[in-house]
Structure formats: C-alpha cells, structure tokens
C-alpha cells in the first residue's frame, strides 16, 4: 500500500533530519576526541598544549596560576608579566626597552673629588620608580693612585680609613625626588689628597619588589661572632 504524497514527504524529511543529526554527532565526537588528544585550540586548529590561544585574550575577572612551573632557559630576550598597580592590568614588561631592568647594576667612576668627599651627588634616578643601594666602592687618588688616606684636619699623620657611603632621597631643581649619593670620611676626617671613587650602585624597580623586609636589630654584646635570624618579609 502506497502512502499519500504528504506522508511520503514527511518520511523523507525525517530521514534527512536523522542523517543531519548523525553527521553532527560524528563531528562533535571527533572534536571531543581531538580536544582530549591534542588540547583545545582557540584561533588554531592544531593546538600543541592543553589550551592554546592564537590571538589576544581579555579577562574581566582574576587570573590564577596554581602551578606556573619553572623557567630554566636563558633570560636573554625574555619578558615578564607584571601587574600595573595604577589600573590593575597585567602587562608585558620588556627589559630591553626599560630605562632600568628589574635589577640594574651600574658603576659610577667619579674623579676630582674634594678632600671632604661627596655630600650630595644626584643620580637622576626617580625615587617613585626605583630603590637604589650602594653595593661597594673603591677609593683611589688621582690617576688611579692607590696611595691615599684620610686624616684628621689638624693631624696629617693620623691615618684612619673610615668612610660613610649611603644613598638618600632629595629634590632636584625640577621638583622631582631623586636618589642621591653621599660618600665622606667619618668624624670630621678628610682625604689627604684629591680622590677618585668607584661606586657599585644597584637600582631595583619598585614595581618588581613584592615585599620589603623590616629592619633587623642585633646586639653583638662586644663579641666578634653573631648569628641573625632569617629576614621576615613585611607582607602587604
């Protein structure tokens, strides 16, 4: 018995729909198996990791890394991800284009120094962006003469090698607070001749320092050996 034409059309439609659904199921199954095997790709059909995004990514919430892993390659040409505290946006930090890298070491070779030393040397490094620390120094006479001493003003024979080297903050002519350097003999002493000083100075980016340790106070009790506790960071 032949079906009416209307029923024949409905039957063909049902068969076609079943075929389309079967094809969709096969495609979805294939995609799921591919995602389980190779990872999930956004903007790429050939992901090489669990999740690979080819393009820019924008997050409206927080981003957490439970296990970011360790990088053991060369730091040359590498970038950092930092959070800009002004807008709380994660940005790429490129050391090659920065005035100072995360930790920058510079040697200042200062010549023709007064016998009183240096009381205020402006490095031009802004205090709003960097911390500055003097790591070490070498004192010489003019033309790299190692025969230089410090003496009391009225006693040229009293040679006592004691110096004060430190960095401090001060305002420049433009009204910008910058790091300054002071290097002088202690207790009113002076150099016995014109001096040359080489200072090893380290500048640390403030936004790269996650914590700053509290001051450590220790009483030596007039002995020569001491053991300090491990610095405890002041957490924000």
Characterization of this structure:
The protein has 236 residues and is mainly beta. The protein is 14% helix and 39% strand. The strands form six sheets. A three-stranded antiparallel sheet has the order 5-13-7, with no helix packed on it. It has a three-stranded antiparallel sheet with strand order 6-11-10, with no helix packed on it. Strands 9-8-12 form a three-stranded antiparallel sheet, with no helix packed on it. The longest helix is centred in the N-terminal third of the chain and has 34 residues, at 5-38.
Task: Give me a quick take on this structure.
The chain is mostly beta strands.
- Give the CA-CA distance, first to last residue: 85 Å
Q: Helix/strand-derived class?
A: mainly beta
Widest β-sheet, arrangement of strands: 5-13-7
Low-confidence segments, ≥5 residues, pLDDT <50? Answer: 5-9
Helix content bin: 10-25%
- Major sheet, described briefly? 3 strands, antiparallel
> Mean pLDDT, nearest integer?
76
User: Helix count, per DSSP?
Assistant: 1
Fraction of residues in β-strands: 35-45%
Number of strands: 15
Secondary-structure element order, as H and E?
HEEEEEEEEEEEEEEE
Query: Compute the gyration radius: what is it?
Result: 34 Å
